[in-house]
Specification:
Order of helices and strands of chain A: EEEHEEHHHHHHEEHHHHHH
Shape of chain A: elongated
Helix content of chain A: 40-55%
Strand content of chain A: 15-25%
Oligomer: homohexamer
Number of helices of chain A: 13
Radius of gyration of chain A: 24 Å
Chain lengths: ~350, ~350, ~350, ~350, ~350, ~350
Amino acid sequence: MAAPPQPRLGRRFVQQLADGDNVEEVYLCTDKQMRANRNGNLYLQLELRDRTGAISARLWNVGEPVIRSFEAGDFLQVKGKVQLFQGALQMILNAVERLPTGKADLADFLPHTEKDVSKLYERLRFFLLRLGNPHLRALAECFLMDQDFVGAFCRAPAGVRQHHAYVGGLLEHVVTLMEGADRLAPLYPEIDRDLLLMGVFLHDIGKVRELTYDRSFGYSDEGQLVGHLVIGVEMLNEQVGRTSDLTGERFPTELLLRLKHLILSHHGTYEFGSPKLPMTPEAIALHHLDNFDAKVHRFTRLIREDGNEGSTWTPYDQSLDRRLFKGGRDGPADENGDGE
Amino acid sequence: MAAPPQPRLGRRFVQQLADGDNVEEVYLCTDKQMRANRNGNLYLQLELRDRTGAISARLWNVGEPVIRSFEAGDFLQVKGKVQLFQGALQMILNAVERLPTGKADLADFLPHTEKDVSKLYERLRFFLLRLGNPHLRALAECFLMDQDFVGAFCRAPAGVRQHHAYVGGLLEHVVTLMEGADRLAPLYPEIDRDLLLMGVFLHDIGKVRELTYDRSFGYSDEGQLVGHLVIGVEMLNEQVGRTSDLTGERFPTELLLRLKHLILSHHGTYEFGSPKLPMTPEAIALHHLDNFDAKVHRFTRLIREDGNEGSTWTPYDQSLDRRLFKGGRDGPADENGDGE
Amino acid sequence: MAAPPQPRLGRRFVQQLADGDNVEEVYLCTDKQMRANRNGNLYLQLELRDRTGAISARLWNVGEPVIRSFEAGDFLQVKGKVQLFQGALQMILNAVERLPTGKADLADFLPHTEKDVSKLYERLRFFLLRLGNPHLRALAECFLMDQDFVGAFCRAPAGVRQHHAYVGGLLEHVVTLMEGADRLAPLYPEIDRDLLLMGVFLHDIGKVRELTYDRSFGYSDEGQLVGHLVIGVEMLNEQVGRTSDLTGERFPTELLLRLKHLILSHHGTYEFGSPKLPMTPEAIALHHLDNFDAKVHRFTRLIREDGNEGSTWTPYDQSLDRRLFKGGRDGPADENGDGE
Amino acid sequence: MAAPPQPRLGRRFVQQLADGDNVEEVYLCTDKQMRANRNGNLYLQLELRDRTGAISARLWNVGEPVIRSFEAGDFLQVKGKVQLFQGALQMILNAVERLPTGKADLADFLPHTEKDVSKLYERLRFFLLRLGNPHLRALAECFLMDQDFVGAFCRAPAGVRQHHAYVGGLLEHVVTLMEGADRLAPLYPEIDRDLLLMGVFLHDIGKVRELTYDRSFGYSDEGQLVGHLVIGVEMLNEQVGRTSDLTGERFPTELLLRLKHLILSHHGTYEFGSPKLPMTPEAIALHHLDNFDAKVHRFTRLIREDGNEGSTWTPYDQSLDRRLFKGGRDGPADENGDGE
Amino acid sequence: MAAPPQPRLGRRFVQQLADGDNVEEVYLCTDKQMRANRNGNLYLQLELRDRTGAISARLWNVGEPVIRSFEAGDFLQVKGKVQLFQGALQMILNAVERLPTGKADLADFLPHTEKDVSKLYERLRFFLLRLGNPHLRALAECFLMDQDFVGAFCRAPAGVRQHHAYVGGLLEHVVTLMEGADRLAPLYPEIDRDLLLMGVFLHDIGKVRELTYDRSFGYSDEGQLVGHLVIGVEMLNEQVGRTSDLTGERFPTELLLRLKHLILSHHGTYEFGSPKLPMTPEAIALHHLDNFDAKVHRFTRLIREDGNEGSTWTPYDQSLDRRLFKGGRDGPADENGDGE
Amino acid sequence: MAAPPQPRLGRRFVQQLADGDNVEEVYLCTDKQMRANRNGNLYLQLELRDRTGAISARLWNVGEPVIRSFEAGDFLQVKGKVQLFQGALQMILNAVERLPTGKADLADFLPHTEKDVSKLYERLRFFLLRLGNPHLRALAECFLMDQDFVGAFCRAPAGVRQHHAYVGGLLEHVVTLMEGADRLAPLYPEIDRDLLLMGVFLHDIGKVRELTYDRSFGYSDEGQLVGHLVIGVEMLNEQVGRTSDLTGERFPTELLLRLKHLILSHHGTYEFGSPKLPMTPEAIALHHLDNFDAKVHRFTRLIREDGNEGSTWTPYDQSLDRRLFKGGRDGPADENGDGE
């Protein structure tokens, strides 16, 4: 997140550390290496991390009991001093202690949406519970009644690296898409608005099982072997059977096929992992809308987070295969200005 | 257009002809071949066309003066009788006469947007004249003061075959995009709304010179050799010099580069003929929004115009490389439940 | 199939018709067009078909009741005479009558594997019921106990056009793959043989719902919108829950993921519609084995069925993007020398 | 090779070295750099290697005569002590001496198939000398009588990096393919078994000249400029003329074309360097069988050699563009187990 | 060739036939179909061809002896009358007789270079016999002493359809390339001129065996299964052994590799069938020079031969994936100004 | 440049520095980093560069005023001593002073063509002023009269990295192409020589604005956002209006389209950034000729500049995706020699 971490009382974030600071704080240990100095004495070289960044740390003259007391992946209560070394800050540690599981506040260790999750969720409910099609509305209710699902859906990121890669990112992405779909739908009367909104809701639900987002962001085995498109269809199959309790009717066959198709085709082409090309108006609309939001989010974020004021361009980004134009020091707003 | 041609008094459209009709009407001759029958007598085999379709026509026993009196591409005043031959209608002609240039009402011969062009144009002016950035607003005014440009912009199709392939299609496409950009922009505060709207206006202006749309839709020599992206930049260069008369200032250099970049990159990738990839937030937004409108328009039109009720699918479409799903006889609305 | 249709008593196959024959037989009408002759009299131009080929047919001077009495797609009892017209045979009909649904013997109208389906099915059972892994064996039993599934699995073709495009083709393809997997597995001790064989069984099960194979071969709506890979995973999910009745244990999580992955990745690459690349030894083995069988089947069939003795090459095949080499009249065996 | 190097008496392999060891042994020097320490004294930084791995080595305070006495690529008799430095082992050398050419036992420096080469070769002869086609059998005999060829064929690896990248790898790959072809051929009666087996034998023979495998694996000039496909055809041309001495007949023209085609097309597509697509059943069979063996070998090896027990996945492999799934600690065998 | 066939005494070329002509002439029969008219009488529908074009021909009321007396591919002595039918000319035949093999003058039936073949050949000898490198000069002499090779090299076309598709086309293409290489070489002193010129000579020699050019242009079995790149290397191998008789030395190894590489890499990329990318300066030079000549030849020929004066563009050309611009009626010369 | 820098009196180029040298010289500072040593004292780590290479430099114990006195990108007058450190040379500085803008001789800091720029320019004028077409000749004169353009055209490189990446490279590239076009044109009489030569002159003119070449080579904002193809068309539009002063006539419309098309299509395909494929003979000729020169230049330069005598191959080059063959120690000339 580009925004400064909202400082909570007492927590010293990595981004706040300065040369000479004495620190007593909990960090996530993400790398641990045993080394020997020139005299053959062993020391530990660690990487400590929270959601604002990472810092190297060194613990001199360690013995086996300390070495064995924790692993990379553990949360550590550390005590030490920050110093400048070869142009960068590092921490010289006096003591480390493994924190028992569950004691760390995960919110400190994973980046988080800047938006209010409960408001986003309310907005999601607002759209879903007002769907005109009774079957789709019932289907949405089934999902919303599933507490485990709702909890995961509000926590999952939308991706590991690319766009919305933070806690709450999936929810934020979906709600933005819903706002967009809601605004564009009236311009295209031949688009089935309810179907499109339901597609927006469902298209990435598989990510709650595809991704892991407890200590750091990654992929589950299921995520890599099956993928969120097919997982999404499985989750849809699980909920759709329950709708008849609410509607008193069987969920329409063709409508269910259209929903599955929306999920499976939303990457738009085979090379991006969709096993089916979009073949309905709502499917092609969802694909392009999703792409619009993801790419605009990606572009604005790369520009916002680029700290290098010496260039009008961001560094080369491999996955986009391009650099982005940031423009003049005063930015585009300046060009528009009335006072010029 | 799927809608039936609004019948004007007296005009007999091709689509309205029936076996046995006697016809006196003007058609565009789009093919002309001289043939000999078994006895060696010459006859003319013609294709006659208006905006509703085409019909074969035959003129028996012609001499050289008639043969030389007109060419394919001319409008012909014809007299003849419609008959069924080998399962299709054809016209047996008694007389043909070349119509002097300018006498035919072109609206009868080219498909036309179903929307009201003057209302679309008013909407375009509404958006452009309310742009906050004075340079962009002045640029828009320069374009709108150019009567030749405005006339062509309101007549040009957006394409020859793919989407919005009818008179007024370019204007309709641009105005729909403006409505969309206007609705989505508030969701993305880091997007420069004025820049995006100006990009929407400019992105396809080169089509007024790339395409021909007098008798039928096609490409001009300039269109094929230079293309509407570069023509658009040329047209922008021609107008941008005049803005200082309105603003009293030189048009900002960086702003001009951003506009050119919006035009040149809007196809999104090299393989679709953009010499530059989108490298600003507004450029990537324009590309995806343009794609959204073009593809949704294409999908809904193919489904709407497909007359074959015997299949839930449209025929295979080569350029999309897929068939589209039309669904049940009663359409998607039907799926949504009992009372509807 | 290249083999001559085994003539049943009384049935006159299209391939057996000759100039001058009088015919009374049932054919599938696959095209029906009303036309008018020079005098304006209506006649019907039909295409009649059985599994050996197609023939044009004409019914002169028809009135509306006859015209309305049947549609393309119906089976017709016809009476007529065969004659040579413009270098090809056609049938001049005296009478046609629509056959009630269910009266036609479908085996006459769809091509069929030349192998014995019941023997193929026994071989399938042989392999599946001897699997060493109790969970996989139980899963196989669940499928085999499902009569509807078994019936469809033994009837479905493996494809509409490409390879094994005939009734029983799916079963034949799967059993050949099982034989191959069974023979190759001992050469690769690190391959889990049971897992590979189960993957062979499951990889195309979705085709029983993806394809239609009642009157002619085609795709179901579900087949086009969802596809046999995802349908296969759905069918696996439906059966896997029942295995605990047989084993007394829950089906192992990782084993289930591996099975889903085998199904989803067996096309090998994204561009062929797999949403996941093969990431286990069994998945890559299945992909290449499947490809081996499909391509060798395709090549040998194209060569065998090519009737043109005037060329050592088959015609250009678009989907393979090549012609195939048939070689000398006597085939490869002949090259090997006189003494054989 | 994952298997531990079979320790020979006296040889200290790199993999066996431990902190504090005194070493007198021969290693291949694969990198040599002269450096100066803070006091300006020169020292040599070397990389020493045998078939089990590599280790850094340092020789302090060297003068010009020593520096000039050897080059990277030489075998060195070294004397030194192993120590831990910055988390890794390195060797501090007291003495180095260049070993005269031919004195080193190459088997210690290049990885080697774990299989028995003489048994593999016997199996190759078994298959080739039992071919039914007398011309193909005679051709095989000509190759087998060529001692230089046989020697090289038994030593060459099948590749530099990808699959079977060890001494004897080519032979192992070919014999495994022969076993496979022999087992699959009966399932496809239209495949010419003799032709397929001969294709298996010939398809990679060019590798004996394309690759270098004396000190390390690499490409010869001829290998890079011409490639093993065309070299293979050249080698075939050299031997085929001699078959008439054995058969008393000219080698059949078409059969020779089919053999050349098998060699040239076995990579299957242009982008993998085949100048011709497979156009015979045997050619397409060879291509897919070759691919099956190479890929399964690659997958199982990557999984077997991955030492990281902390992940269920191998690291990302660039040429495969994926990670591979290793699964649970107890491996797939566990899932099958009866004892569960 | 667009130029009118130089009329020889007595020969009536297809292009010269007019309505009403009585004809006695030899044509190549390229298609033969037996048909029946409305009364069931058999007639033959033929296609007759010489190097200027093709015409339909009909022989009424034929009996079996005539039908069996010839096949498509034979030269026929025909007698008949030309008439206009359905807008095209056709020939009504009275008599046809198969011409014995070897009696037809092939020059009448295949298009031919407009240039003087013996002058082209002299120019080829001029360049080759003046090569400075004695080994390359000796190699050239070996080829030139091979009468069969020279005969074929002077007759072969350079392709079946694309560029230089006429008798003598290969020679014309090679000589033009030699002139070009001879002119460009002095601008690039680091290019080995002799090597480049020898590469020009050798790059397409394989076409003399890849193509067939006796009655019509096509591919030989060897051409399709092996291809002219590898055939060229084989032909080089056959001649290179003889050079030592002329030079008294062994042909240099590296020089031979460079020649093979020039042949194999001249298509420039894998997708165009080169098994190796160009990796020497001469190889990349040859590739681009070859491409220059082939493409310029193709473009100018398509424009020259396009007869349609109604358009400034040629029709769409599938293999080029574009139309070509012909420009104004008076052509490019006209643009250059009045006084010229 | 491979050639040694021609040493000017007094200038010590980076390539000339040796261990122990005392230096007083101006260098371009291309990197500047502040670091702290173990004692917390600050020092500056710099990269100093001229056109012969780069060297690391260190300034110990610096205070804020010095740190703030210059930036990366400035020219510095430095005083220091060269020493060997960890195998490489570095400079220990005693004093640095920022040179005022304009005081440095840029020729010392950017690589330069080895050819004589004024002679190249004369050759360019020679060709352009002898064009036969008066409009093209007038257009050339307009460009040559524009002093700013001529100055930039003679200084610009032809690229940042690939070919002709040195001051004067663009001019050298264009003049070589003109020589080539002048020599090849007579071989292709259907090519309009004047048009081709003018295309050669114009094709890369946009590079004078696309690239920056004052201190180092890079891309301007305009270069990245618009690109040299479209900039070239803009520059052409600016000059073409002035030709009528010289000719007394309007520049012909079609001729102008042809020129624009030559510029826009000269990259040959979409993926290389041409928005149009070549559609005229001159355009396809220009594309291939440009490619010939660029690639041959690239290949010969990579081989010439490769200093590694231990290999017959250059290192792998990523953008070419290959290594190049250098061949035997004595080079290709040796193979040809009679004196062997």
